[in-house]
Amino acid sequence: MSTQDTPKYTVPGLSTDEARSLIGLLQMRLHALNDLHLTLKHIHWNVVGPHFIAVHEMLDPQVDRVREMADDVAERLATLGGVAQGTPGALVEARAWQDYSVGRADAIAHLGALDLVYTGVIESVRQAVAQAGETDPATEDLLIEQLRDLEQYQWFVRAHLETAGGSLSTAGATSETEAAQAAEQ
Fold first, then answer.
1. CA of 31: how far to CAs of 4, 6, 15, 185, in Å?
2. Domain ranges of the chain
3. CATH number 2.30.110.10 is the correct assignment for the domain at 13-184
4. 0.85 surpassed by pTM
5. Where does the Ferritin/DPS domain lie (predicted)?
6. pLDDT, tens digit, 9 for 90 and up, residues 41-51
7. How many Cα neighbours within 13 Å face the side chain of 134?
8. Read out DSSP for 62-100?
């Protein structure tokens, strides 16, 4: 967001410069959430194997909630005086991450890769919470609520990856492909 993108107005109690900063932060959250809900649907469509139905059905409520999160973020962004950029081109241009890398694969392999996706999203939400908390408790509150849900979804995923001894089968994996392979073993 450039200085020419500074909103003409914002909510009472915030300066337009503070709003501009929050709008930029929220725009990246919007991109991440739009990417996440598409990734979840990709997994939903491409999961196979003996755990197919469990994973297939587990993902739909996550997709629905992540879409709601994106809508909430876009509406907060607009409330602050910004313009929510929700097009695929804007997402691809702005993101710092690559597309999800696993195609048709066993359910456990997808969950291993998805665990890393959730880790990246959750870490970035935590950073956004800290940044928003310096300026705007309403934006901070919105992000904290979303953080709780995202952490719960990662717990659902990790329950499939946890060994009887309490460790994750994907521990130490640094890429989606590596996590997918580790989860299958």
1. 21, 19, 24, 33
2. 13-184
3. no
4. yes
5. 25-163
6. 999 999 999 99
7. 10
8. HHHHHHHHHHHHHHHHHHTT-----SHHHHHHH-SSPPP
